[in-house]
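We include the entry.

. . .
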Amino acid sequence: MNDITLALDVMGGDFGPRVTIPAIAKALTQKSNLSFLLFGDENQITPLLQKYSLLNHPKIQLHHTEQVIDSDIPFSKAIRQSKNSSMRLAIEAVKEGKALGCISGGNTGALMGLAKLLIEPLPNIERPALTSLIPTTNGKSSVMLDLGANIEVSNYQLQQFAEMGNLFAQVMLDLVYPRLSLLNIGTEENKGKAQLQAVHQLLKHRQDINYIGFIESDKLTNNLTDVIICDGFTGNIALKALEGAAKNLLSLFKKEKADFNICRNTKRYLLKLIFYRYYRKLQEINPDRHNGATLLGLSKVIVKSHGGANANAFYYAIDYAVQQIQSDIPNKILQGLNQSYTK
């Protein structure tokens, strides 16, 4: 395995180093070819590196900065205040070739804006799309994009999302002819906005894409399609609804800490016993295991972790970035697009 260096915005997300450092510790035990460039406040990071026996680790370089982009400030202000921030420095490390990919759980708008500003886009791609793998109930995954990078999109951009999603699924899911669908409020030809109906007709006549029609949001985890296409507004709402539903269901089976109520614990035990098979399936679609969305359409791998991710979830975002780097996703997308454009 070739060595992989990742740049991490250690301060990003709701919990900063308290999540990112234990995730790094786990990643280093699981993947011998990994190295990390860490960007953040050494006063907060160093005690945690010491706690997890990572202080002076040969595969970790810490770059100190006290500047952090707040999670709740507007996009334009975030970009103006980004100089010397942990997020910007991490992305710049990728731009300069010091790292092969970047991961941050910080301000989504700022991450997307800085990535598009600093990282070269693939030729002919108008807008990168936030892309993730979502779990399905049969243990497989589907690709979904856009998940929030582009609130409003043109018909042409939706077609580009379909092209990139198609190539991403071929590589990441090892599929020869992935099934593609547009997310809509119904599967009938006359359902949905005029834009969706127009793109639906365009994709139907594409010979290079296995487009199978509309899909509704209640079928997203049923593995009825391999690639789900939508604008960022729709995709973000759908994804968060899925994540919330899965977490709420999982919480029904979990034992709360400091809960010594015998009746309540007995009920939980009986629930697990009766619905064990379903509980196993719920574990497979646990959002923590599928944390991380990549900005597809850039020449480098930039992964956005959920801001509220725990250490285990952030580890999976690291793993998601590694998979894409090992699969050479940006170059595979470029090659696939070049082939389709020259036909």
